[in-house]
User: Fold Replication factor C subunit 2 from Phoenix dactylifera.
Amino acid sequence: MAPVAPSSQPWVEKYRPKQVKDVAHQDEVVRVLTNTLETSNCPHMLFYGPPGTGKTTTALAIAHQLYGPEMYKSRVLELNASDDRGINVVRTKIKDFAAVAVGSGSRQGGYPCPPYKIIILDEADSMTEDAQNALRRTMETYSKVTRFFFICNYISRIIEPLASRCAKFRFKPLSEEIMSNRILHICKAEGLTLDSEALSTLSSISQGDLRRAITYLQSAARLFGSTISTKDLISVSGVIPQDVVQSLFMACKSGDFDVADKEVSNIIAEGYPVSQMLSQLLEVIVNADKISDEQKARICKKLGESDKCLIDGADEYLQLMDVACHAMRALCNMPEELHFS
Assistant:
C-alpha cells in the first residue's frame, strides 16, 4: 500500500508519540510501563480514562517498541469500535489469532520480540457482555502466547472477571497547560499562527481531549489558512456560539415565557444540536455567580432529565422548552408546580 502523502495525513497520526516515554502528562503510567518494557514481560493490561488522553497511543507504542516495524503486523492484532466484536468474532478471529504459537523470541533489528502476540481491543467498553464473557476463557487458555490490551473510557462497563485478569492503568485528564504546550508545538511545526484567545478557546471546546483539539486545529488550518482565530475554531468544532447560549440564559432570567419561546424557536430553526446546547447551558449555570446553589441544583436536575429524554428520541423543541420553563421557574423563584383553577 502506498504511503499517505504528508499533506493528507491526519495530524493525530503525524504527531502521535512513537515511544511510551513521550506520552504527555501520564507520569505514573509511563514510569511503570517503561520498567515493564525493560523486561519485555507484559501482563494483560486495561487502560481506562477520558478520551484523547493517550490510551491508544500508549498501547500502540508498547507494541511498536516490542516488535518493531517488521514483526508488528504478524504479532499484533488491532480491533476497534468499527470492527464487529460480537461473540462470534471472539470465537473465531480473536481465538484463531490467540491460539497460534510464535517463536522463542530472539531479538530482531534491535527489538526484544518476546515470545507472545498482542491483541489490542480499543473501546472495549462497547463490547457486548456475552463477548466479554467469551474472552475470559480465551485469555486463560492462551495466556502463554497472547497478551490482551483493553482500552476503554468507562471501566465500569468492563465485566469484573475480565478486569481482574488485567493490570489496570488510569489515564488522567490532560491539563490546559499540557494541551496548550502540545498545540503550540504543532503550530510551530506547521507554520500556524494562534493567538492566546484562540488557544484558550481550543482548550476549552476540546474538553481535555487532545485528539479532538488536534483535529479541530487541522480542520481550521485547511479551511482558513495559517492564521487561525477563535471564530474559526468555533465554526469547525460545531460548538454553539456563546452569545446564543447567553441569550437563552437571559431569556430564562427574564421570567417572560414569550421571550424564552422565541429564543428556543430560533435555536431549533438555526439547527443547533439541543444536546450540545444543554451541555453548554450547564456550564453557564454552574459558573454563574448570582444563582443560589438550590437554583443551580433544580436546573441541573432538569438538564440531566432532558438529556436522557433526547437520547431516548424525544422531540428537541419540547425538551429545550421544558428546560427553559424549569430554568425560568428556578431563576425567578416561581412555584415548582403551577395550579390551575
